[in-house]
Recover the amino acids of this structure.
């Protein structure tokens, strides 16, 4: 791609370093910004720099926060003995959206993935193990995505805290509410039968 | 979507104002930037602000440029009597990429589109008409996309310069090189038959 302007070229190159945005899309975004008032570009770049500079991580659960301790960890009404282990802030947002969870979180910041060069030391695993060993945790819920990397991470953590006297659980896998059985994959359907729950319990949770 | 951080929320809101990027994608981009060195965010926002602040438009053809006159208009080897009318810089880049055009461009900055609130006065039409009437142009090639808006814009310009004694042409519509006839739409196939060209001419252009 040859550009008639170095300024455009530089902006396109920077934008196209973001995941999922190629040079063509980047050029489309740049041309869009050129048609908008200059303020929009200023606000965008200010918001990005402020976010990247001033962002804090909760020193308790490592979730992204504007304070040293996030709102969830600071909330005395939440059950601080029930810890849900998730990958990143998006999972926290998704689980909070259900309104079903009243415990706290532990945000790992990723999954163990040798292919992407992510080892246990790059994740917030040791602080979770410490938390468990200090006796402040009654139950750990593993809520990572059920991929090879997620399972590996679960198992790595499990091995480190297996000798502690706490409950360990994982979120239920099964057929999604509203899905048709015939289109479900065999592994999921198989698990949903193996891990079936009492009918009366299922009525109550509706 | 509820965010645990106002900084994240603001960044996501600004990014998701860009076309084709929703809140979820915006959050993905923000989390990506957080994992990268701080410099990447700085470079990105600096490139955006510099682009938006310092960008110039060629005073001759209105193409985006770093100088008052773009490289194409400043090139004495180009045929300045042959003017190709296009929508925006992307079309200039596409035509330049073919290496087949040695004239100059006139960049309208869009198409007449009542639905999007774009009228002739928002486009660089009057300067094109002036250019034609000053007698400096021998041929105008209309190279807008063949949509309702493109055809409207072509016709609007055509009416304004119809009484001047210049050649007016449009780029050829037809079956793309490498495409199979049976999958072509009827309008395109019909036009390619109506506007057929001498076989010997087609051999030479290969």
């Amino acid at each position: 791609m040859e550009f008639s302007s170095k300024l455009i070229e530089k902006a396109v190159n920077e934008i196209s370093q973001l995941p999922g945005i190629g040079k063509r899309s980047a050029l489309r975004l740049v041309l869009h910004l050129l048609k908008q008032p200059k303020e929009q570009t200023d606000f965008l770049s200010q918001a990005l720099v402020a976010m990247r500079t001033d962002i804090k991580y909760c020193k308790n659960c490592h979730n992204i926060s504007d304070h040293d301790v996030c709102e969830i960890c600071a909330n005395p009404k939440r059950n601080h003995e029930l810890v849900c282990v998730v990958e990143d802030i998006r999972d926290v947002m998704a689980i909070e959206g259900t309104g079903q969870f009243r415990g706290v979180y532990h945000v790992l910041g990723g999954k163990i993935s040798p292919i992407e060069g992510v080892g246990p030391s790059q994740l917030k695993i040791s602080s979770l193990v410490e938390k468990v060993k200090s006796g402040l945790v009654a139950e750990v819920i593993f809520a990572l995505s059920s991929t090879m990397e997620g399972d590996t991470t679960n198992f790595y953590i499990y091995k480190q805290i297996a000798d502690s006297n706490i409950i360990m659980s994982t979120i239920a896998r099964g057929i999604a509410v509203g899905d048709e059985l015939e289109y479900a994959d065999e592994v999921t359907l198989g698990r949903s039968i193996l891990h079936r729950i009492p009918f009366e319990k299922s009525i109550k949770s509706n």
